[in-house]
Design brief:
Blueprint: E1 7-13, H1 32-38, E2 42-44, E3 47-48, H2 54-63, H3 67-70, H4 82-88, E4 92-96, E5 114-116, H5 125-137, H6 145-158, E6 165-171, H7 195-207, H8 214-244, E7 251-257, E8 262-263, E9 269-270, H9 277-280, E10 284-287, E11 294-296, E12 300-301, H10 304-311, E13 331-336, E14 344-350, E15 355-361, E16 367-371, H11 375-393, H12 406-422
């Protein structure tokens, strides 16, 4: 076993909130695989995403930088990801997912030897047109977990050089519209819901949350929980495949989410650009090769994932998930306003026991606190905001990386628009 350079496997789920998993106290048996995985991992009970939505959360998770550094104003990748770092260190690198916002169109393929973002346009034109027609026929918005597993395991099996690898799988099943497949469709719901009805209900919850009745809210949760159970089963299948290939005990396996999803707790659904617990409190597990387990209450951030991985290469991060201190730590989150032209920036500070929120008007510089009357927390958060403002104002070139071939960008952009519409982003 490579004790000095273990393989690194990063498994992330889109829109998976921590409190809907059994090992985080949920009342339903949605996550038997992850519950068992927790028994052989470090499980962080107070882990928070650096942001509340994919366009800022995934870049932060992959770079270890706050979104104001990780991406530019156009949401293109503006910092190196952990894939680049590990590639330079001799790791084979691969990523498999189907979220258009972190596709090659935004530069996220940098550093990956193999990068499958499930986009077909910009490749062979006839194949792309046939694939798009097939996707439309079967109402397909993203690659299901079984497809992600199949593609990533095929890549693993094709590796012929004895070198460590970094593999990132990002699963979209827990993202809306919630359409659990097959037998999962009625796992918690008392009737089968058509794809069209599920999409319509999900979109209405986003557009007109006040119109959602209590029974409709319960149905959305039933469908979401069923998606979690489906995703959990396929996470288990992937972990079993690693074990069968004798790779599990040669790897550090990290499981987390980019953000959660809301069900009306604060008057909204899905994951708009707020920072409440339901959309920032995420599961976080770190499995070491020896399978040692611990429940860690020290606050952690998805930003810590990259620092921890790079620590394997000999760096000394300020905070490592592998050696969390027994102390009350402060972690921060941020989100831009609701659209690209918004003058709002939202920030949050969390300790083990307390939370502080604020909003900053970028036009006036005014800061308004929306929670916590603790003067110490407010002062600490304001100091953090001032630091982030200096960073944001000092990164004028962020997001100006070469966009690649213009024709390919146009073709990929067309497919991205279609995917985003189906996923409720448009």
């Amino acid at each position: 076993m490579r004790k000095d350079r273990p393989n690194v496997v990063l498994l992330t789920a889109d829109a998976l909130r921590a409190d809907h998993l059994g090992c985080y106290g949920y009342h339903r048996d949605t996550s038997p695989v992850l519950d068992a995985f927790a028994d052989e991992s470090l499980r962080f009970t107070n882990a928070y995403s650096a942001s509340s939505h994919t366009r800022e959360a995934v870049p932060a998770l992959l770079t270890g930088e706050f979104p104001d550094i990780a991406i530019g104003s156009d949401y293109r990748l503006a910092s190196d990801t952990v894939a680049s770092t590990l590639s330079e260190a001799g790791y084979a690198t691969a990523g498999f997912h189907s979220n258009p916002f972190v596709s090659r169109a935004y530069g996220f393929d940098r550093g990956f030897d193999t990068f499958d973002d499930d986009l077909h346009l910009g490749q062979h034109k006839l194949i792309a047109l046939a694939q798009r027609a097939l996707d439309k026929l079967r109402n397909r918005h993203y690659a299901r977990a079984d497809e992600i597993n199949e593609r990533s395991l095929a890549w693993l099996d094709a590796q012929t050089v004895d070198e460590p690898f970094f593999l990132w799988n990002h699963y979209m099943d827990t993202h809306g519209p919630y359409e659990p497949p097959g037998e999962y469709a009625t796992l918690y719901a008392d009737r089968e819901v058509s794809g069209r009805e599920a999409q319509s209900l999900y979109q209405r919850a986003i557009d007109d949350p006040e119109s959602i009745t209590e029974s409709e809210r319960e149905l959305l949760i039933d469908l979401y929980d069923a998606e979690i159970r489906y995703n959990d089963e396929h996470l288990g299948a992937f972990l079993d495949a690693l074990r069968d290939r004798l790779l599990l005990d040669e790897s550090i396996v990290i499981v987390s989410a980019d953000h959660g999803d809301a069900f009306g707790e604060h008057g909204y659904y899905e994951h708009p650009r707020y920072l409440h617990d339901e959309i920032t409190h995420v599961p976080l597990f770190v499995r070491l090769p020896d399978g040692s387990s611990e429940t860690v209450e020290t606050p952690a951030s998805t930003l810590d994932i990259v620092a921890t991985i790079e620590g394997i290469l000999g760096d000394e991060p300020a905070f490592s998930l592998l050696q969390p201190p027994d102390e009350d730590r402060q972690v921060f989150s941020q989100a831009r306003g609701e659209d690209e032209h918004s003058h709002l920036r939202r920030y949050a500070l969390r300790t083990r026991e307390e939370t502080c929120f604020c909003e900053r008007d970028t036009d006036t510089g005014a800061i308004e606190h929306t929670a916590s009357t603790d003067p110490s927390l407010r002062s600490t958060l304001e100091a953090h905001v001032e630091e982030r403002v200096r960073v944001e104002n000092g990164t004028g070139g962020a997001g100006e990386e070469d966009g690649g071939d213009a024709d390919e960008d146009d073709a990929v952009g067309e497919e991205i628009e279609q995917r985003l519409d189906a996923l409720g982003y448009k």
